[in-house]
Design brief:
CATH superfamily: MetI-like
Helix content: 55-70%
Distance between the termini: 80 Å
CATH architecture: Orthogonal Bundle
Largest sheet: 2 strands, antiparallel
Radius of gyration: 32 Å
Number of strands: 2
Shape: globular
Oligomer: single chain
Number of domains: 1
CATH class: Mainly Alpha
CATH topology: MetI-like fold
């Protein structure tokens, strides 16, 4: 008899499943037109940025070293004469003093009020989203509209205005010079700026409060540190240091950019003009574009200097640096 060489099928375990062969990942082909679509969306933005920001920045820097009166085409290269004339102009120095007073009044007030509101809203048992929306809503208002409301309705100087009605209700005489005399116009300017921007910085502090681990408060409660000022200064305030530094920097930059409320409320008072209003009058009323460009770069240099000093003394990322182990500690752990 002859044996047929037929393959014998292997009997496999019924519970065993054969392993499928490894699948080779397929390369995804790039979608056609992706690069073209990218430039179609981003191209107009970069074109506007190049024309209205970058080229304008370099052209303004060039104008600051030239004499350009009633024309943007320079007629004479004067080197640093515009800067010297600007820094020796009493009106410009008075505008820097106005900014200093405004910053001293509005920056700490906004910081304190926004921090207090953030802690109150963050600790509410209910309706947190509602109160966040209520306090944030004024940031959507225009500075021009808010200034007109303050000027025509709240601090108009008439006996029927809101401010004078409140003063009369508590037995105080009404004030007619809200918008013409110091320190009354500072009350008007600071309150309108406070109403417009405190909600935004409140949200920043709420975000900082939400980043604080609950374990820190639990450990403090175990150690006997109850709610109150001691726990705030021991735990909350150090953890909010990076957020506070960012808020301070944003407030200082916003104070330097103050223009709308001053222009609509006290533009006729020379002693209440901030640097931007002085540069506006210099460039668009006196038509001295060379000196106006020099003023813009002087203000920019002051903003950068103040920001560097603020970050140097208060510090960004101080909490992150504190969390990093020192080199000596690393060596001890390694040994």
């Amino acid at each position: 008899m002859t044996q047929l060489n037929t393959p014998v099928a292997r009997v496999s375990d019924p519970g065993h499943r054969p392993t499928p062969p490894p699948s080779v990942p397929r390369r995804r082909r790039p979608i056609r037109g992706t690069r073209r679509a990218f430039w179609l969306f981003v191209g107009p933005f970069f074109t506007g940025l190049l024309i209205f920001s970058i080229i304008a920045l370099f052209w303004g820097f060039y104008l600051s070293f030239t004499r350009a009166v009633a024309t943007i085409s320079p007629t004479e290269f004067v080197w640093f004469d515009n800067y010297v004339s600007l820094l020796t102009d009493p009106s410009f120095l008075s505008s820097l003093l106005s900014f200093t007073v405004f910053a001293i009044l509005v920056v700490p007030t906004t910081l304190l009020v926004s921090l207090v509101l953030a802690m109150l809203v963050a600790n509410l048992p209910v309706a947190r989203a509602f109160f966040r929306s209520v306090f944030f809503l004024p940031t959507a208002f225009s500075y021009v509209i808010a200034s007109l409301i303050w000027k025509l309705g709240i601090f108009s100087g008439s006996p029927s205005s809101v401010a004078n009605t409140v003063l009369s209700s508590v037995g105080l005489p009404p004030i007619d010079a809200w918008l013409t005399q110091s320190p009354y116009y500072w009350v008007v300017i600071v309150t309108v700026r406070l109403w417009l921007q405190v909600g935004f910085y409140m949200l920043l502090f709420i975000a900082g409060l939400q980043r604080i681990p609950d374990t820190l408060y639990e450990a403090a409660a175990i150690d006997g540190l109850s709610r109150g000022p001691r726990r705030f200064f021991a735990i909350t305030w150090p953890q909010l240091r990076p957020t506070t530094a960012a808020v301070l920097l944003l407030l200082l930059v916003a104070a330097f950019q103050a223009f709308d409320e001053f222009y609509n409320l006290v533009r006729t008072i020379p002693s209440a003009r901030p640097p931007l209003l002085y540069i506006y009058n210099l460039s668009f009323q006196q038509l001295d574009y060379g000196k106006g460009s020099a003023g813009a770069f002087v203000v920019t240099a002051v903003v950068v200097l103040v920001a560097l000093l603020q970050s140097r003394f208060f510090g960004f990322g101080a909490a992150d640096e504190a969390k990093k182990p020192r080199r000596g500690a690393r060596k001890e752990r390694a040994s």
